[in-house]
Amino acid sequence: MKTPFIYRRPIRWGDTDAARIVFTAHYFDVCMEAIESFFLEILELDWFAMTCEKGTGTPFVHAEVDFHAPLTPRDVLNIRVEIERQGNSSLSLILYGNREAEGDAAFTGRFTCCFSDLKNLKSIPIPDEIRQRITYYQQQSSHLISG
Amino acid sequence: MKTPFIYRRPIRWGDTDAARIVFTAHYFDVCMEAIESFFLEILELDWFAMTCEKGTGTPFVHAEVDFHAPLTPRDVLNIRVEIERQGNSSLSLILYGNREAEGDAAFTGRFTCCFSDLKNLKSIPIPDEIRQRITYYQQQSSHLISG
Amino acid sequence: MKTPFIYRRPIRWGDTDAARIVFTAHYFDVCMEAIESFFLEILELDWFAMTCEKGTGTPFVHAEVDFHAPLTPRDVLNIRVEIERQGNSSLSLILYGNREAEGDAAFTGRFTCCFSDLKNLKSIPIPDEIRQRITYYQQQSSHLISG
Amino acid sequence: MKTPFIYRRPIRWGDTDAARIVFTAHYFDVCMEAIESFFLEILELDWFAMTCEKGTGTPFVHAEVDFHAPLTPRDVLNIRVEIERQGNSSLSLILYGNREAEGDAAFTGRFTCCFSDLKNLKSIPIPDEIRQRITYYQQQSSHLISG
Known about the structure:
The structure is a homotetramer. Chain A is α+β, with helices and mostly antiparallel strands. Chain A has helices at 26-41, 47-54, 128-146, and strands at residues 5-10, 56-57, 60-67, 76-86, 90-99, 105-114, 116-117, 122-123.
């Protein structure tokens, strides 16, 4: 397990708007890419398989981004994903987006999803093996920070 | 001036993902459409003209959405835009997204932008005539709520 | 039945890129909105219901756009949808995108979809009642052009 | 120079729609990513720098995709970019999108752009050093095919 998990994402032409910086809404596409990769690589959980084969998913109940500095197609983002809180059904993540070359903070994101049965959209407990991986990742991350 | 300002938006096929509901990141595209229309119709401020002709803009410093209920292409959204706070350079908006047919809450959004010189991305005071329109809209809205 | 079918679409800030015109790929989002509305209003066919309830759909086998003039957020598009050809399973549409104010041609699109069983993605014949609506729309359109 | 140029792109959750395959319009976002990378790595031409510093760009005059097989988030695309034709101002590219695991064809794209002055959108000749790189890439590719 790579700790911390960092999603690398070059900013592209299609991310921009007429102000010649990344369009506000596109940050959320980029964050969702980072979270999808975190789920796949760290939690070993494939959203598409989970949806199509088991009829369960992790719809988001909250998403927010604080924008610290504008981004352009010359930037490459390094997005570090950390776990803020693990509830019975819900999982809260923090995303730290930094510019690779300068190392400065570009944005901070907070996203909460809820493990759910997609048929009735009722919450379900986080499956045990996923919970263990979340806990393990939290422990590895806290070692990094404290040590 | 229409008070309150409501942006009507049918949910479309292209808004969905494989869970057969609107994709998390697409809510922010929809909210930005609503805010752009609010700026144009209520504040008489055209982002594109402002950017190209004056070199000023309103980059966002914060964007968040709480998701209350899933949306599908059968839904039509009514998004009411209200002013949360007017600062020296910053403007905070609340967006209440309701499903037209059922009337229930689909999401609540909070967005803060900052009037800025796009060359150096330094904040500038909200122009006087825009400030007056913001204040007038606030007064009309509070009459509605109190009365 | 409104003949010809015209989809009205204001160009928005989020459609632009750093060249301050509409981003190439976004034309296809706009065209898909127009086609979805054409299916719903003229063919009385709801992609979402068709997909979720019947397991059939109309995946596209070809999509193309010729760009005649750039578009900016000051423009409003009028997109006229015409039927180029109706096959056993396939339907080819032509989209004429004109700027509302100036009336000049902004783009021409050609899109072909194929009625299909979504489980195995095998083609199915166009259902009879849809075929009748397509034929009727073609006749109404040709009257307009010839007469 | 890597010949042929291949852009690797995993399909993501955000690319899908309610039919649980990649949404038609999103193929064009993916193709534009591939073309942007081709311009940057093979032609050493940065769209963003070109636009902001020189006021020149390469707006597209034609874009089309033939879809051969559906794509889902389990797929990884390998998109090979080849030059179809080099004109005085225009450049036509062919994109061959193949699924990495199976090797089968997912789509073929044809895109033509036109080197232009962005102020008046008049065409300009392809700059000499870009023309040389295009020609060199064509020669390398034809060696591969013939040899």
